[in-house]
Every structure is written in structure tokens, then in C-alpha cells.
Amino acid sequence: AFKGEVVPRVVFVNNDTACAYKDNGFLIYAMKEKSYMVHEELFEDSKIQSVLYNDNYIGIVLEAGETETKKLLLYDLEGNKVLEKKLAQIEGQLSQTDNDTYRRQNAVIS
Fold first, then answer.
1. pTM, two decimal places
2. Based on CB atoms within 10 Å of each CB, which residue in 1, 18, 27, 78 is the most buried?
3. pLDDT-based confidence at 1, cuts 50/70/90?
4. Which residue has the higher pLDDT, 88 or 86?
5. Do residues 82 and 57 lie in contact, with contact meaning Cβ atoms separated by under 8 Å?
6. What is the residue-averaged pLDDT of the chain?
7. Cβ count near 53 (within 10 Å)
8. What phi and psi, each to the nearest 5 degrees, are found at residue 104?
9. How much helix, strand and coil, in percent to the nearest 5, is found in the chain?
């Protein structure tokens, strides 16, 4: 899945799950006795600007295109999209406040 690609960030989301973030997508791996890929998500026309995660979710902020605004996408650890919101403006970082809540600093979500 990574042949000839640079994977700038790999995180252990919890004890059983890892996520590899690429410029234009991410891969979720289950880390049981043997690791295996659970889900791969690619964004053909967008690049990832920033990422966030906790024990239950993986979040992606996609860069704005010429005619689009930034988007916040939230996925469960099986790769199912559970939230998609347009971000009118984001200044600062999205950060985790606890296992189920994310804080957005100076962000306007429309």
C-alpha cells in the first residue's frame, strides 16, 4: 500500500489500532496477533492539512480547493465516516480534550 510513497505520520490510536497518514489519505491497521489493514481512504482531489484522533475516532481536515472550503471528516476505527463538516475558517489547532470530545480553537464550522 506504500510502494514509492512517503508516509509522514503513523500513530497508535489505541492498543489495537494504528493509523498511517499520507498526503492524500490514510490507512487503518488492526494490531492483533498479526497486523492487517482494516480500511484505506484516499482523497483524489484534496490533501490533508491536519489530523486528529482519540481512542475511538480518526479526524482529517482537508485543504480548501479553489472552489471549496476546508472540510472536517471524522471516521470510526473501522473506516466508516461518521461526520463531515465544512470549515468556514480555522485558526489554530484542533485538539483532543478527552476520549470523546475535540476542542476547536478559533474555528468556525458551518
1. 0.74
2. 27
3. low
4. 86
5. yes
6. 79
7. 22
8. -115, 130
9. 0, 60, 40
